[in-house]
Design brief:
The complex is a heterodimer. Chain A is built from 5 helices and 13 strands. By secondary structure, chain A is an alpha+beta fold. The longest helix of chain A has 14 residues, at 119-132. By secondary structure, chain B is of the alpha+beta class. Chain B has helices spanning 76-80, 84-88, 119-135, 187-199, 212-225, 245-257, 265-269; strands at residues 6-12, 15-23, 33-36, 44-49, 61-67, 70-74, 89-96, 106-114, 138-145, 148-157, 160-166. In chain B, a hairpin with a 2-residue loop joins strand 9 (138-145) and strand 10. Chain B is extended. The two termini of chain B are 41 Å apart. Classes of the chains: A alpha+beta, B alpha+beta. The interface between A and B is large, with 184 and 187 residues.
Chain lengths: 255, 286
């Protein structure tokens, strides 16, 4: 297990549970570097003062918040830290909610919660959350920023999810999507049957990132000096006859 | 209207719905700009070719990959030729119950909105929204956006199609090495802890939780603008584990039964402002 990223204490009432956090996820996407297409040389990002037209060392850079056009309030790192509050080492669980009620749009990032010295209190918290199916809601300070979090018992592991705040989530109504005409009963019935026929239990292992391997393969072919065919991308044909497309899909899924 | 981050087709069976992807999360953070200390001019980031020492435009930038010490350069066009269908189409592979998807998989929320306003597109879109809502099912599929493949869950939310990008199973770390708890709690301990959890239980109402960090940062900016000094609060000490777990549990439960907001002694004695909202019994769901 990689190193823990945070140490602190979860509290509920007068019970204090010392914990460690570990990142629960890691991106496996292929990482590229920016290079100059012409000569393959690395691209450097340089910080330049446009007024003096010269590079500025990091030491001479300050952080400013634009309050009016071109008007900045400059804040020191300590002043920005002041906004993080003083509860840097405590996650106080103030409410417990039914974990299933949290809409997926709220979930941001997941950490694994590990125990520290008081392992009995840790086990008790895990068991109580497991038994009730509830998630504890609290606030968590990390890298000078405060997050809303949900603490939840997973399969044999305690999980901490950072959550988006309600005003950060866009509602469907805001989009003002134009509504089409009502589908016919026959279409609704066929679509329903199509969904049922493809219905299964979610098993994450059934879905591999095949693109990752395909990109690596492309890189290897390119390294061998192979010419890469840049094929034209085809748009899928958009059938006008919805009912016919559904019917054909159903026939296909039955076979 | 929100900016489209991707456009293509949502394809299920032989039905194709032209769609655009827009973000369902908005960034409300206060963002700082880098300024040159001396003249308070915003810093520009310039891309410079390390060999030529000349500025490079975005169009001249390609992707470099270090293959066992050998640099390989690929272009956007070449990357686009890898599994091209996936860059234009979200193929629905299965329908599942939302409750079966562990939240650890969720990455970023988006909406899929109909692309264009042709009658056929809008009708197919509406059919899919209504079918997913009726059956309470989530469509699972995959697609490629900006050189990365995503596993996605598409469902009906507030009359539109909501898409969540998800992690692939190998991007979720194994949890087996995470240090777990100690001995199994006694029945009395567990019953008391469960009673506390139930006593503090409420319905999930996201609107009740404000982003205090954002509010505090705003106050810091305002104060600095008025040239007031900003006091950096002293970090609170980390509380120590209770010497007697059962005693801490019982006293917490007593406080709850007396209708008080349970507070650790640490907070009560250092006179820290509660910062919490008042709790009324009537708000409780149980």
């Amino acid at each position: 297990m990689p190193k823990s990223v945070w140490n602190g204490t979860v509290t509920f009432g007068m019970v204090n549970v010392p914990i460690k956090l570990y990142s629960g996820t890691e991106s496996k996407a292929i990482h590229f570097q920016e290079v100059h297409a012409k000569d393959g040389a690395r691209i450097e990002h340089r910080r330049v003062c446009p007024k003096e037209d010269r590079e500025v060392p990091y030491k001479q850079i300050v952080k400013g918040y634009e309050v009016e056009d071109g008007q900045y309030v400059v804040l020191g790192n300590d002043e920005i830290k002041a906004a993080a509050g003083n509860r840097r080492k405590v996650i106080e669980l103030s409410d417990f909610i039914d974990a299933g009620e949290i809409d997926p749009v709220f979930y941001e990032k997941t950490y694994y919660v590990g125990s520290r010295d008081d392992k009995d209190a840790f086990e008790l918290l895990y068991q109580a959350l497991r038994k009730t199916g509830r998630a504890g809601i609290g606030r968590f300070s990390f890298h000078d920023r405060e997050y809303l979090v949900a603490l939840r018992a997973g399969q044999g592991v305690l999980l901490l999810h950072t959550l988006r705040f309600h005003d950060e989530v866009v509602s469907g109504q805001e989009l003002e999507v134009e509504r089409g005409t009502k589908p016919s009963d026959k279409e609704i019935d066929m679509a329903g049957r199509l969904v049922s026929s493809l219905s299964e239990k979610f098993s994450p292992r059934a879905y591999e990132d095949t693109y990752r391997d395909a990109v690596l393969d492309l890189i290897k072919r390119k390294a061998r000096g192979e010419e890469i065919d840049v094929v034209a991308q085809e748009e899928p044909a958009q059938g006008d006859d919805l009912a016919a497309a559904l019917e054909a899909s159903l026939a296909g899924s039955r076979s | 209207m929100a900016r489209a981050l991707w456009s293509g087709s949502l394809s299920f069976g032989l039905v194709n719905v032209p769609v655009q992807l827009v973000s369902a999360a908005r960034d409300l953070d206060y963002h700082f700009q880098q300024l040159h200390d001396k003249d308070k001019v915003p810093i520009e980031q310039r891309r410079v070719c390390s060999k030529e020492n000349e500025e490079v435009t975005w169009e001249e930038v390609a992707h470099g990959y270090d293959l066992d010490g050998k640099q390989v350069v690929v272009t956007d066009e070449e990357l686009g030729s890898v599994q091209p269908r996936k860059t234009r189409t979200i193929d629905v592979e299965a329908f599942v119950d939302l409750g079966e998807v562990d939240p650890i998989y969720f990455d970023h929320p988006y909406f899929l909105i109909p692309a264009g306003d042709s009658e056929g597109t809008l009708r197919a879109y509406r059919l899919l929204v209504e079918t997913l809502a009726d059956q309470d099912q989530v469509a699972i599929g995959r697609f490629v956006m900006r050189t990365k493949e995503y596993l996605v869950a598409v469902r009906a939310r507030e009359g539109v199609l909501a898409l969540s990008t998800m992690l692939f199973h190998d991007e979720v770390r194994p949890a087996k090495d995470v240090e777990s708890g100690g001995k199994k709690p006694s029945k009395k301990q567990l019953d008391t802890a469960v009673a506390i959890v139930e006593g503090l239980s409420t319905d999930w109402d996201p609107g009740r939780y404000q982003d205090c960090y954002r509010e505090r940062l705003k106050r810091v900016i305002d104060a600095k603008r008025k040239r007031k000094t900003i006091e950096v609060p002293k970090p609170e000490k980390e509380p120590k584990p209770a010497p007697d777990l059962m005693d801490a549990l019982e006293r917490t439960l007593e406080q709850l039964r007396d209708g008080e907001q349970p507070r650790s002694e640490r907070r009560a004695s250092d006179g820290a402002k509660s910062g919490g909202r008042s709790r009324r019994g009537a708000q409780r769901s149980r």
